[in-house]
């Protein structure tokens, strides 16, 4: 599953693009040394929009360095680690292909894959790209959220090891595609992974499987 190239925490912003939230922690920057990951989140990070972020199943977020490179080319921007609002920038793996409920050992921590990230207008404003939400959704490589099953320290260079993977095989990308790409053909498959989705997301995805 690759390795951690960077661990990132928020520099809180109060800018026009933060919208109704007023303040945002989407601007994350690499930090040296180990960072502790806990059930309540990442030490040193900040969650400002608690209506949509920071719940136990959003304790940490990972995005791929390869996807940052893709968007750099698409947008003509120099996107670097943390620019997608991710706590973990990963290399050599494809986080959107992780299976819902999959458990990872990263550093001393154990993380469990909970679901995809949904892009929002704050994200688009931070990148200053019109129609980014639509383009990001169409591309479908969202990265993944985690719950923290065992607290521990994580640092750049740590290997990502898969400890267990549910047999249903439903990936983060497939859940996102069913929700936002009008893919009823995925309904039967994704329904097999509902039990591993957090309850608030499970209800929404279950409604999509009942087609």
UniProtKB/TrEMBL annotation:
InterPro entries: Benzoxazolinone_Detox_Enz, MoCF_Sase_C, Pyrv_Knase-like_insert_dom_sf. The lineage of its organism: Bacteria, Bacillati, Actinomycetota, Actinomycetes, Pseudonocardiales. SUPFAM superfamilies: PK beta-barrel domain-like. PANTHER family: PROTEIN YIIM. Residues 29-163 form the MOSC domain. Pfam families: MOSC. This is MOSC domain-containing protein. Signal peptide: none annotated.
